[in-house]
Q: What sequence folds into this?
DNA sequence: AATCAAAAATGACCGCGGTCAATTATAAAA
DNA sequence: TTTTATAATTGACCGCGGTCATTTTTGATT
């Protein structure tokens, strides 16, 4: 029987997470260094790794939280009325992930974990995202706005695939003036959701 | 005006690449260590990085070569007659990439580079793959086997997206007895290519 | 208050990728 | 042959993530 964590431990973990979030805000995700986190939190390096499996584990919490916040925004208001509106709703998520390759890599690494490690925030955020998408698609199917020959779950996973695709392409070029991921997404979703009578 | 490379240099590079390929064959891609490569090749560590930008640069050559070999096999014979046959033709590629996360990560990192660095083998392999897919899709469209309302280029890119999607999911679980990527791909392609009259 | 076992934290140490000023080999010019 | 510019190689060094045997702290028990 494992004992409940002591107060000190919870405080330490919270401090580590706060400090990490601050550094990310100052330097971005790519600028995050474990040594900086522990230095500013006033703990030893080993302590961080007793709270988080590895650096990715820490990032997963930070990013998971952020995705949850984005989902709050996405969920507010009525469901999208048609495919174009749905595409537009995904723009904030694309903008967020598109800002730093670190986010993309991490989400990809956790993106199929829907079963294992369900206690992780990032996993919960994934489940929530796919659930929300599925609900939206169901509504659009009922309204006759999109194809009805496929289950909404499959359509939702397909959208995830296209999201990652446009992001992958986005990170492969020096994105100076190129088409942002949000714009690149449209033709795929149009073709994917188009009604097939 | 940059001079032509000396014979010595070409030999060194070839040796490094051979040694690396051997180690990969023995230990797999994840087992490749730069220090091992230079030790067995009898050169200093710095030499490797004067021949390849970084470890990924070396991997890109090894993996690019392998993908080219796979494409040779794919291109042999007649183009697929229908969507299912096309799906089956992609299985060897999925099996190869699915064997090691290192391959997946690397290909993803280069997967949109179709424009920049066209001299890299891995980039050439990408162009070749998408070209081949496009050609096949065009044939299938003409034969009325798949949807004709979208350009074959878009359909080809969509297939890439689904390939990466099923691979991503594949790497996210302890793949003991789960459905292999090749089987997971079918429903997506079926829905993606289905004729829309 | 003294004792003790589990929890929490520590920091020296390691693995491994990548850098760069210094050194050596090469081939063309004098 | 000697000189000289540049191509090629070297290896000590660094950054950074991650480990683990050891030490310190904590809260319950006597």
A:
């Amino acid at each position: 029987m494992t004992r409940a964590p002591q107060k000190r431990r919870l405080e330490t973990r919270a401090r580590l997470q706060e400090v990490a979030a601050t550094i990310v805000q100052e330097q971005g995700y790519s600028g995050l260094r474990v040594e900086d986190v522990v230095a500013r939190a006033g703990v030893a390096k080993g302590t961080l790794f007793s709270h988080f499996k590895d650096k990715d584990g820490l990032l997963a919490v930070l990013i998971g939280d952020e995705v949850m916040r984005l989902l709050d925004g996405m969920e507010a208001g009525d469901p999208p009325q048609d495919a174009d509106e749905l595409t537009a709703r995904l723009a904030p998520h694309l903008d967020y992930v598109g800002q730093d390759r670190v986010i993309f890599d991490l989400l990809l690494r956790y993106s199929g974990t829907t079963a294992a490690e369900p206690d992780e925030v990032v996993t919960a955020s994934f489940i929530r995202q796919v659930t929300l998408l599925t609900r939206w698609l169901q509504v659009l199917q009922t309204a006759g706005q999109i194809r009805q020959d496929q289950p909404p779950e499959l359509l939702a996973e397909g959208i995830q695939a296209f999201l990652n695709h446009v992001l992958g392409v986005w990170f492969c070029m020096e994105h100076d003036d190129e088409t942002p991921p949000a714009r690149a997404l449209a033709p795929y979703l149009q073709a994917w959701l188009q009604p097939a009578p």
In short: Chain B has two domains: 1-51, 64-193. The two ends of chain B are 58 Å apart (CA to CA). Chain B touches chain A through 34 residues (CB under 8 Å).
